[in-house]
Give the backbone structure.
Amino acid sequence: MDDMEKYIAKRKKGSVEFERSFEVGYENFRIGFLLRQAREELGITQDEVARKLRTKKSAISRIENHAEDIRLSTLNRYAEALGRKLHVVMR
């Protein structure tokens, strides 16, 4: 475990609120990362996705970098623009 992981583990033990907000923040980061990763694997630019979704490149950048309040319908449209299907799992 590196220093950052130790720090995070220590903060989580000391604060339920920190743990909760950290997990939510991580999941939001992960969503944007997965969208960007899928787009890049297909060799598609943000401009191309924006055109398919009839929006601007800046909107696609916000989705990929700040996915904290993204609608499920937007995620689905983004996936469709990449020729992918959105699959949601509840744990």
Observations:
- The chain has a mean pLDDT of 90.
